[in-house]
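ARCHIVE RECORD
Type: protein–small molecule complex
Small molecule: flavin-adenine dinucleotide
Source of inputs: curated submission
Record status: active
Notes field left blank by submitter.
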Amino acid sequence: MSALTRRLLLERLGAAGGLGAAMLGLRAMGVAWGAAPSPLPALPAGHGVGRKVIVLGAGLAGMVAALELRKAGYAVTVLEATDRAGGRCRTLRTGDVVTETSGATQRVALSPGLYFNPGPARIPHFHASLLRYCREFGVPLEPFINENRAALVQDDAAFAGAPRTLREVQANLRGVVAEIAAKGLARGAMDGAVTVEELERLRDLLRRFGALDRDLAWRGDLRAGAAVWPGAGDAAPEAPPPLDLHQLLRADFWAYNTQHAEEIDQAATMLQVSGGVDRIAAAFAERLREVIVTGAEVTRLRRTETGARVAWRDRTTDTARAEDAHAVVVTLPGPILAELDADISAAKRDALRELLYMPAGKLAFEAPRFWEEQGIYGGISWTSRDSTQVWYPSSGFHASRGVLLGAYIWDEAPGRRFAARDPAGREAAVRADLAVLHPGVDPLLQSAVSVAWGEMPFQKGAWGEYTAAQRGTIYRAIHRAEPPYVFAGEHCSWLPGWMEGAVLSAHAAVAAIATNR
Ligand SMILES: Cc1cc2nc3c(=O)[nH]c(=O)nc-3n(C[C@H](O)[C@H](O)[C@H](O)COP(=O)(O)OP(=O)(O)OC[C@H]3O[C@@H](n4cnc5c(N)ncnc54)[C@H](O)[C@@H]3O)c2cc1C
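STRUCTURE (tokenized, with ligand):
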């Protein structure tokens, strides 16, 4: 295709179908890059007319499915057990109440304008299907700072437990690795494998990669921070000396902290929703106002001759209700579906019982922005203690106060310890961990609020955590349709623990309904 024809075609696509159509054209020509949004289920308008679908759960998966099914003419009802749509896509603001299965209750007391996302918070740039809805609905986005070299890393096993800056640790690890590689080159490790000129280029690569000196040795550099910061006049900067290698090797820094933002789903650019992630849920809920029934706890599923009967309890009036449908989209979290009175296969139930739903949790404080006084603007500090991660707000810099995420815990053992404590116990534990990262700030931390997802009614966990082996064993049983039931939710995707996974699973469920029609 000539450049001129291509240009004309793109102009027309853009004029007729907007940016989305123009981008599809570019992709078809092989000149667009990055992840494409999953194609929306291509159901002809009117395809679902005369057909009824009940969607179980008004999280993102349920609401995406409902929205797309309605576009194709299906009559849809969404049954949601809690009193709000959104599921895990939730934001807490002052006056909100968090009640756990045990009955433990917290009332959020953040200052007006401040908020806390206890579940999803960040969006990778390639989560194109979720981002397409954000664009379409006008959900405002802003950068999420996922890595900040001025933030801290701390390991009880090294440097007497004192925190170091990520910058210092990152620079030292790179310096050490580059020096070792340079020594290998000097001993002939690449002789014969590359030409003499290439060998010189490799040395140049290592020098720049590790900030090595002329002798290809790591002797410290300003990348690691400054012993003396640059000033005016004679105030020349001074690089800090290299960190003690033995101490560096005691810590687990390279296992998590220093390569976190190298992972594709943690790499810049990360995004967040301005004002709270629940704006995404609210945008869907607004468009589904007439079809979402809140306070509707699904209690039983049974096949009928024409589809299925869904029994549910109206939690407001405590009355039993039932409704028939041709198909049912089940988006209930794994641990909930595993124990539901439903005629699903034994294989699916067993698989759901085997899947670990991670007992992750978060705890937030309101505080004056002391971290910005330390040059920390956004980003994450890490500790080897249970609190795992501390997040600094990515926006609102220099405001008087902010929400500090004092702990984001996602590993199973610390997650269970966190969940086993009551809210006051969690707060005390997180305060103790924070005192190691930021000594002396304890009196500044106020209005703690925590969510331990394993303790949340109608959730019982944060996300489905598959082992690599389970992808080959239980995964198929979990996501496979069993007509008239089709299954969606983040655990039915290869992106569990991500909103994008919920969206993609819903698209797949809608396509399955169309196929099984
Ligand atoms: C701590 C944490 C951090 C996360 N971080 C991120 C992040 O940074 N970025 C990101 O993209 N994603 C993140 N996620 C993942 C994201 O929140 C989920 O993937 C997504 O919100 C799941 O949507 P869903 O529709 O599959 O499930 P849900 O949102 O759980 O929806 C299921 C719905 O079913 C309802 N329900 C349950 N039982 C019944 C019943 N018996 N009857 C009727 N309704 C019922 C529930 O109340 C709920 O509303 C995080 C999640 C957690 C918990």
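CURATOR ANNOTATION: Residues 1-33 form one domain.
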